[in-house]
C-alpha cells in the first residue's frame, strides 16, 4: 500500500502492506494514505481481522484511525485485533471514543513487546513471530510462517488399492494401509512429501545488525527497509535505518530466496540506484512499488 518513509511524495506513500496467506488477510503497518491506495487498487478485504504495527512512528500508524473509522461506517460487525506496543492502545482508545462513537464492531488490542523474539499470533494454519529491530523507538518486524502441512496422497495408490476416503486422513498422519486381502502397504509408498511451509518476513525500521539474519534463515521472501543508499550512510547511522546494501547483506547472511526493499527516503530521487546497490550483494532483489501485488509462492 506504500513504499515510502516519513515524508510522503508525489509517488510514494508511507508504509503499509496487505499479506494474503492461508486464505486470510493481514495488514502490516498502516501509514497515512493507506485507505486511498486501497481504494485505488479496488482491494476488497473481507478476511482482514488482524493488523500488525511494527512501531509507533507516524509513517507506520497515522492511517490506522481513519481505516478503523471507515470500517465502522461500512457496517463491519466482526472484531478486529491490533497487534502493537501497549502505547498504541493508550493513544488510540481516546481517539476512537471521540471520533468513532457508536462503532459497529469491537477493536481489540494485543500488546506485544518489541524487544522480545516470540510468537504473538497463532491459528490452525500459521504463526506470527516478532523480530526485535534496532531503531530509535521500540520496534519489531514480523515473521509469518505456515504450519507444517501433511504429506500428499498418491492418487495412483488410492486407485490401485481402492483406499476408502475415510482412511486418507489417517494415512496422511502417518498410518500404513491394510488391503482387503491382508497386505500391509507402507505409508512411504502411499504418500509424497508435504509442500514446504511458506515463510514471509517484514523488517522495518532498523539499523543493520547481525542477529537479525539468524531469525530469518531460509525464508521464502524478506521485505527489508532500505531507506538510504551508501551515499547517505552517515544519515542512516543517525536515524537508525539501513542502506540498500545493508538490507542485501542481511538477505545474503540469512540465505533468503527473495528480497524486496522499500521504505525509501524522499532524498532518494532514483530508486534504481538503491536496487543496483542491493543487487551487487544479493542478486534476487526487487523494488517495492506503490500499489503493486507480488505473488510470492
Characterise the protein shown here.
This protein is α/β, with parallel strands linked by helices. 28% of the residues lie in helices and 24% in strands. It has eleven helices and 16 strands. The strands form four sheets. A seven-stranded mixed β-sheet has the order 6-7-8-13-14-15-16, covered by helices on one side. Strands 1-2-3-4-5 form a five-stranded mixed β-sheet. Strands 9-12 form a two-stranded antiparallel sheet. β15, α11 and β16 form a beta-alpha-beta unit. α10 runs parallel beside α11. It is globular and about 75 Å long. The relative contact order is 0.12. The model has no long low-confidence stretch (mean pLDDT 94).
Concise overview:
This protein has 297 residues and is α/β, with parallel strands linked by helices.
Amino acid at each position: 500500500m506504500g513504499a515510502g518513509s516519513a515524508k510522503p511524495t508525489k509517488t510514494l506513500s508511507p508504509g503499509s502492506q496487505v499479506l494474503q496467506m492461508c486464505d486470510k488477510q493481514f495488514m502490516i503497518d498502516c501509514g497515512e494514505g493507506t485507505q486511498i491506495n486501497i481504494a485505488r487498487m479496488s482491494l476488497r478485504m473481507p478476511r482482514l481481522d488482524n493488523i500488525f504495527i511494527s512501531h509507533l512512528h507516524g509513517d507506520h500508524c497515522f492511517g490506522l484511525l481513519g481505516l478503523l473509522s471507515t470500517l465502522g461506517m461500512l457496517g463491519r460487525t466482526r472484531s478486529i485485533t491490533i497487534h502493537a506496543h501497549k502505547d498504541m492502545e493508550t493513544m488510540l482508545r481516546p481517539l476512537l471514543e471521540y471520533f468513532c462513537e457508536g462503532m459497529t464492531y469491537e477493536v481489540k488490542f494485543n500488546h506485544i513487546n518489541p524487544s522480545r523474539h516470540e510468537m504473538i499470533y497463532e491459528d490452525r494454519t500459521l504463526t506470527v513471530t516478532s523480530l526485535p529491530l534496532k531503531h530509535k523507538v521500540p520496534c519489531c518486524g514480523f515473521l509469518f510462517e505456515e504450519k507444517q502441512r501433511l504429506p500428499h496422497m498418491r492418487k495412483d495408490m488410492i486407485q490401485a488399492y481402492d483406499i476408502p476416503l475415510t482412511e486418507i486422513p489417517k494415512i496422511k498422519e502417518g498410518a500404513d494401509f491394510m488391503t482387503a486381502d491382508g497386505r500391509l502397504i507402507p505409508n512411504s509408498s502411499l504418500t509424497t512429501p508435504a509442500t514446504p511451509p511458506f515463510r514471509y518476513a517484514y523488517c522495518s525500521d532498523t539499523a543493520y545488525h547481525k542477529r537479525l539474519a539468524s531469525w530469518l534463515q531460509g525464508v521464502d521472501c524478506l521485505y527489508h527497509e532500505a531507506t538510504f543508499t551508501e551515499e547517505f550512510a552517515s544519515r542512516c547511522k543517525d536515524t537508525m535505518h539501513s542502506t540498500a546494501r545493508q538490507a542485501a547483506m542481511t538477505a545474503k547472511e540469512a540465505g533468503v530466496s527473495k528480497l524486496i526493499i522499500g521504505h525509501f527516503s524522499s532524498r532518494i530521487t532514483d530508486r534504481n540506484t538503491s536496487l543496483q546497490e542491493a543487487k551487487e550483494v544479493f542478486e534476487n532483489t526487487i523494488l517495492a512499488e506503490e500499489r503493486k501485488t507480488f505473488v510470492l509462492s
